[in-house]
Amino acid sequence: MSVLVNKNSKVIVQGFTGSEGSFHAQQMIEYGTNVVGGVTPGKGGQTHLDRPVFDTVKEAVEKAQADVSIIFVPPAFAADAIMEAAEAGIKVIVCITEGIPTKDMMIAKSYISTKDCRLIGPNCPGVMTAEACKVGIMPGFIFKKGTIGIVSKSGTLTYEAVDQLTRVGLGQTTAIGIGGDPIIGTNTKEAVELLMNDPETEAIVMIGEIGGSMEADAAHWIKEHGTKPVVGFIAGQTAPKGRRMGHAGAIVGGADDTAAAKMRIMRECGIHVVESPALIGETMLKALGRA
Amino acid sequence: MNIHEYQGKEILKKYGVRIQDGIVADTPARAIEAARTMMERSGSKFVVVKSQIHAGGRGKGKIVGSEQRGVQVVNSLEKVETVATNLLGNVLVTIQTGPEGKRVNKIYVAEDAYYPGASEPKEYYISILLDRAKGCPVIISSTEGGMDIEEVAEHQPEKIMKTWIDPRVGLQGFQARQIAFSFGLSGVAFKEMVKFVTALYTAYTESDAAMFEINPVLKTSDDKILAVDAKVDLDDNALYRHPDLVVMRDTNEEDPLEVEAGENNLNYVKLDGNVGCMVNGAGLAMGTMDLIKLSGGEPANFLDVGGGANAKTVEAGFRIILKDPNVKAILINIFGGIVRCDRVATGVVEAYKAIGDIPVPIIVRLQGTNAAEGAQIINESGLKVYSVIEFKEAAAKVSEVLKELGVN
After folding, report:
1. Beta strand segments in chain A, E
2. Does B268 fall in a domain?
3. Do residues A269 and A130 share a domain?
4. A5 is a domain residue
């Protein structure tokens, strides 16, 4: 099964003809993703990477039956692109763009809340279903088809986790990069829930960082409803209070959003918490009783 | 981006929020001039001299080596001169600055707003910030003005009111009225408070602020409502559409190494430890800092070189990390996805040669695309650089190096 995206997903790229969009669209096609075209306003009717370019997402849905969109447009226009995709009937919207103003994201999130769609990101590495469909910028070669699902706020830390899993012989179902901004479409708990409900996923890696309450919320949900082992890590145990650590959302505001507080709550909720990000793979083997 | 009180008040004023007015000054002579103007304008001989630094707790904070407080009410031009001389160019330590304090480069000479009149002056608290979980702004208000709001939240949570705003329609009239009623106001003061809250929300959204904290909000003895202080944090991601606010950045308030890193497009945060690090990606960078700690060291910095790690960025990163005299070793941790490890390795070797001799041991962990080729380049370079591939090996190597150095 896997979640969110699979072999049958019909993917379009918003910001298709830009340098980022072109590069990653090419990579996605090489991985085997069914990219059915792209959108660049004003360039409709052209062909790019052997695929049609549309002026609007609506047209891409009508003519190419697109149901998944990945957004590479610059920050000033990204919130608009998200709303356009939702309005056009796209079911899974993945926004890679980093640096969208918070006010724009608040409005976009509110706008799409009444539409039948799911937003992943922004400021995220995308979604990857191993050996089936890549809708993002994750390096394909580290993935192996298997049974572990991954939820993460961070890009390269996700790669680290996937790589460790693959090295200890554990393949993956789907990796969901939910993004490091203060306002994102799908939170940790929702992403974990998707993987809990996926029959192919046997266990979950949950990677968070300082700031906000999403990991604690997810942990409480897991305690109530969890049916599979979860290995967790929170980055930023050494981060000082009040300083923004790279990601717009990675800032310790109070006593509840430190790495230590989140890890404590996760442990109390039965999650296998690792202190060191180098031990994610090994800990998962132990959690599955295969060490 | 944080800005000073006087700048925050400029923004408030622009959107019709009444403020305790004042004039900024950077010399005692200008402070006297400012005080004279404020005294004439208000008809009072009282003015307030307020240190302008990016930290709270100024009223209780003290200038290093003296009893001078960071904020003082004075009643003559002579005293303005004394206080201005005590403050300007000196270091103010408050509960928020840490023991090293912050240099006072500017002071704000403000009108006396607590003048006697028909009714008692009364202080309130209002802040506006982002509720991350709900994805919308929230107005936090309290009758306990002038207090540390975190203390109030802990000991008297019933005295804090939260008003969530629908970002698509903004603040509604009934919400502004609810806040004003919760303060127990009536008559002119009530109407003024509704106006104040409404204008404050407009200023918040129009300036793309991340946080406004007005503490205290003052009801004067003649029922005016005004902002006595203004702590303002602006959304960095939205600054591109506010050229008038970008110029409010005061790099004197920032760590010079962080300013230099920013100029090189590096995301750097200075910390107090002994092991420097250079990483691609913010999450992995934080994870690497944590790993340094677990290996017996303390991270000296956060440094995300981003997706384009090359010889130029690596060199800039090296130069910045090496300016910190506490750094005893450097760990470079790159997970090559789109970035190729052999290119990063070449970058490390080139940067090393460009800088000349680097006096501290360097551990380079390259993983992902072309990791083996990268390791080979490092190993064959003849430089004093340790190459590792697994994250665990990096941790072990950091421990080993620190032991050799006798740091741990």
Report:
1. 11-14, 35-39, 47-48, 51-54, 68-71, 92-95, 118-120, 126-129, 133-136, 145-152, 172-177, 203-209, 230-235, 272-273
2. yes
3. yes
4. no
